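Following up on my earlier thread - several people asked me to post the actual chain instead of describing it. Fair enough. Here it is, all 342 residues.
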Amino acid sequence: MAVVRDVMAAFELYQPSSIADAQKLLEKHGSEAWVLAGGLDSFDWLKDRIRKPKFVVDLSGIEELRGVRAAGNHASDGIEIGAMTTLTEVVNHPIIQQKYGLLAQAAELVASPQIRNQGTIGGNVSQDTRCWYYRAGWPCYRAGGNVCYADTPEGRNREHAILQAERCVAVNPSDSAPALIALDAKFVIRTSKGERVVDAEDYFVGPDIDITRFHILQPGDLLTVIRIPSTWAGAQFYFEKIRDRNVWDFPLMNVASAMVTSGDDIERIRIAVNGAAARPLRLKTVEDAVRGKPCNAATGEMAGKLAVQGAVPLQFNAYKIPLMRNLVKRAIGGVQEATWAS
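Reply from S.P.:
Thanks for posting it. Predicted structure:
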């Protein structure tokens, strides 16, 4: 007789209608609580029984976590995006399209239309890594074990890190994260001690800080709002994502840049990549090197070479070094040539 196993382990489901109520539930249940946003990453964990939380806090009924609105008293102060705003809403919002198109470009390349209709901006920046071993429940470093199975002679590591790898070589899979870093976004977090605001680049952590997490949220914390200042509104934007399939796929690597020029020279720039390390990387060294330089192919060439300094490939991902070099080169110099070229 066949044995049928439940798809998900049993849990208590809470559906609060306000941020305050959600916060109380998260504080009460601490590490035993699981936050459910769009649910797309969560359901993978739950149906595979890799995560078995006792309590699930569903945020879908909290209207104050949804929508795009002006920050402060005027649109010139920038915008706020509720963490439960869907990626489709982000893509289609007229102000984001007109002034912060970099984020619209990035969000539109997430997975498929069906997933963007359900997935949220808060969930996209907070999702966990897609490492084969970790997602399958292997007892690796990130799961509390003492080995990185991807970083072994037999390991499958084509999608993994070439920079800042320390024990764990898994990478961050978010498309919206580097765009938000390039736009100098701020993340608003509700904690038991009150509201905390952090720069987008500081929301993410690598294994040198905490090998078990990809972001700074602690049990009881809740990401509520993403603020984008007007600093980079209407700048020159560049976003490119490389993936194996044109839909439903995570990035092998992506790049996002926001640039302001004066004549032919780069006056201000922010640039970030993802898929190269455990966290999205802001390339400050590149920014400093190209500031004041002409916005051309030669500057892009120099920037690309600088971006990959210190990169260490694994057995099957050496292609990521020329890939990253050429993505950065194109983001700055606008050179339209084969991304895979060496």
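The first strand starts at residue 12 and ends at 14. That should answer part of your original question.
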